[in-house]
Amino acid sequence: xxxxxxxxxxxxxxxxxxxxxxxxxxxxxxxxxxxxxxxxxxxxxxxxxxxxxxxxxxxxxxxxxxxxxxxxxxxxxxxxxxxxxxxxxxxxxxxxxxxxxxxxxxxxxxxxxxxxxxxxxxxxxxxxxxxxxxxxxxxxxxxxxxxxxxxxxxxxxxxxxxxxxxxxxxxxxxxxxxxxxxxxxxxxxxxxxxxxxxxxxxxxxxxxxxxxxxxxxxxxxxxxxxxxxxxxxxxxxxxxxxxxxxxxxxxxxxxxxxxxxxxxxxxxxxxxxxxxxxxxxxxxxxxxxxxxxxxxxxxxxxxxxxxxxxxxxxxxxxxxxxxxxxxxxxxxxxxxxxxxxxxxxxxxxxxxxxxxxxxxxxxxxxxxxxxxxxxxxxxxxxxxxxxxxxxxxxxxxxxxxxxxxxxxxxxxxxxxxxxxxxxxxxxxxxxxxxxxxxxxxxxxxxxxx
Amino acid sequence: xxxxxxxxxxxxxxxxxxxxxxxxxxxxxxxxxxxxxxxxxxxxxxxxxxxxxxxxxxxxxxxxxxxxxxxxxxxxxxxxxxxxxxxxxxxxxxxxxxxxxxxxxxxxxxxxxxxxxxxxxxxxxxxxxxxxxxxxxxxxxxxxxxxxxxxxxxxxxxxxxxxxxxxxxxxxxxxxxxxxxxxxxxxxxxxxxxxxxxxxxxxxxxxxxxxxxxxxxxxxxxxxxxxxxxxxxxxxxxxxxxxxxxxxxxxxxxxxxxxxxxxxxxxxxxxxxxxxxxxxxxxxxxxxxxxxxxxxxxxxxxxxxxxxxxxxxxxxxxxxxxxxxxxxxxxxxxxxxxxxxxxxxxxxxxxxxxxxxxxxxxxxxxxxxxxxxxxxxxxxxxxxxxxxxxxxxxxxxxxxxxxxxxxxxxxxxxxxxxxxxxxxxxxxxxxxxxxxxxxxxxxxxxxxx
Lengths: 449, 449
Hints:
Chain A is α/β, with parallel strands linked by helices.
């Protein structure tokens, strides 16, 4: 396997993209051209089809032999792909994304072998086949039929194209953006190891997330991952844990031992953060983008609502984190700040006295004694969530500790949550979700210590 | 403790409600009157305050001695409450909700004892103090300052008023309705046991959910719960598992042994379904409203998207459910229904062939061999989620097995999810959440077998 960074640049930063396939209404190739044009890609876009004509103001080429093509995106029927790839190879094209299905995933191993052979022969890198394509939000490259990702600092790479589509839709709903998106399908050439290696040095990417079913190049992957986690965190969903799940994966042969237990141990050892589902993946990405590290496991919970704080504290302790009481010096300090009757213990329950000023002064007072803070706010009829969010945001800027919020819930806190975003504070729907995120970040910090 | 059902009717079906407290802008009593009026309560509403005058077209009474009051809602400062309660008792009022705080939760045990004594003396039932009130969506009774609940078939009872507020906001966001909502605060008289006993015979309530921190009347609660679960399921969040969480609860004395492990065992033994957080509570309620029972643990997964199906299958097997292969007779049947290349195994991955017709015919064919089905759908550019939802809905009506869906995600499936609601099919954001719900319902069926 070759891992030249220059080769990979053709996928993410091509000067020209040629799209092969029918340019008729509803066809994949046309949808990709549309996404490139509407997305605002500034390089050259060459639609290529025997039909000729024009599409979105672009000429449809019937002959590609005189075009300079950095990246070929192929959405023609599978039997026609090997001869096309051969021609592209001869012409010196160095990168191809094969969107089309009909290969090893339906038992057609022979055709997939042909592709591999041609790629090797011409030193051409291939993503796919049977994939949903690549996106780079930095240069508006959307070589995919999926909904265009918003820009952000998380890269997502996935074996399952359909899962990729679901992730993009969930992200859109959450207003969550990506740096790069890669669906690599049957992985006939480019795989996780190449992609991680590339993303390690991509300045736009701060967090790498991946969905994998098997790891045919387990050792190589782990080597790349180990080198990467010193620079940026990797979050992984590893599916296919049990027998039934595994028989549903397309790639259940030749993977790293195959036993889930081995993945679990390897991931822990190499500092890869494993999550169980997509919601956890989004939660943790958002946490890591704000706070790559949390130095210890002593957590303070500040709240205006008893019940949610108790549930959050339960979850923190379930996960092995600590919610220790404040020192007596700190208690004395808090006595001066707070009305009588307010609890001076952790969780710090401000009750109905949880005004913007009280939240702010308590946060500033307790921050030095804890490694991270969770601020829980349940709105009442009398309180403006935006004011509380501003006070929390300003307090956060004067402390140097990670601060997470749980502004619960619905329309009364929408404005507050928007405000928290401006301060770079990650907000979670429940304190339990927030506790899980802190736990994972603490684990990672311990690993890389 | 008295548990006369007639007594409890005063809280849920009063002919008249008197609200005691300041009727000035922003005050609690005024907000409650507003909620009763705007909510459309058809009984008599008596605002009572020394100010006199009018509010929302209603006369504010300065003297309540000639009024016939089924339910008194009290939001005056705590020191004035015992004398008021004494007067109400003398007048024959049999039910009072004390919203006001300032009692045992801030160390003022003496005042709370006075209330208890008066209640005993006059055989008056008291909810609170320090609570968020009661709602009954059947007769539009909203004696609370919280956002008015939508109508539904789930009752929610909570010790923590602030948590109650958060639950109502989350529910509003989800379009989830309640039959009854009760926040009982410091529980000086009416507690979980009374409420469960009442709700057991409430026809509007199909599922009972509760948030508890401690159970001072543990034995009585378990007795009532045991009798109730034969009629309708109980879902419980028990908070205060660990030391830090417990010290944050207002009621950490005198509870049933206090050790979380004991609750865990008792809940299992009595068939109470324990959940970890509010999202799980909503998920499970929705599942139980559609399917009170699932007969066994053999689950089929039908999908048009490999990745999400693998993750769902993993979760099902993590939880001890089974995802068995179809019989060879069923495989033969499927061969006739499906294009070649489509997997005849469970999970049944229809790939790009997952049209409305294919979903429908596969669901009908496999239903007899499984105890429940999960249908996962990830939309592609070419597919109309409403059509798929209709096909799934119609198929469900011709099988007699619980069918859950996971239409993922965002705006492309919004229409489909609306359609599924019309068929009474619960849809989940992820297959993992759906798996958790099925697991809990299966557990319950095993318990009550």
